[in-house]
Amino acid sequence: MARGKIQMKRIENPVHRQVTFCKRRAGLLKKAKELSVLCDAEIGVFIFSAHGKLYQQATKGTMQELIERYIKCNPGAAAEDPKLDNHLMDPNKEICMLKQEIEVLQKGLSFINGGAGGAMSLSELNVLEKHLEMSMYHIRSTKMNIMFQEIQLLKNKEGILQAANVHLQDKIDEQFEMAANMATTFNEDFDYTLTTNNIIATQNDYGIYQY
Fold first, then answer.
1. Which of 11, 56, 71, 93 has the smallest count of CB within 10 Å of its CB?
2. pTM for the whole structure
């Protein structure tokens, strides 16, 4: 059955959006690696997720080497964006952004709990939504990791119990075998004793070897 054509628009479901992102990101990086190997090309890929997380891949060397080579081949790039020479954000600006982010999160927490945090703007709600999606993703990942660890622990316990069961069964079989051998030996000795006694009794009846 042929799959339907995928509509090129934003996926509204955050879980489906995250799953699609992970799958397509891995596919893109894989294709870049294959193109580099097949055609002996140098490829660099930058990917920023919706949460701002950076994913990068340099098929040969490092990403910094590729950026420097790009600037050498395209001198106008450095002039167009002077920030290329300054990868670090200004500390004061970064502190200000972090403070604003903390305020938005505190306001959002009060809003969720029904507190008197006041109404939130659309931009603040978007920021809160991204943080909630990130938190849900981390919660699900942590939950899956814990479940996986518990499953592995149960499998290990199962293996230990199976090994102990096999050991106990071997011991039981060994005890049964020893008991059977002892019973066989006892029966043989008992039969021999009975036979000897019968012979002596018979000899006595006929007065044989009587002195």
1. 93
2. 0.37
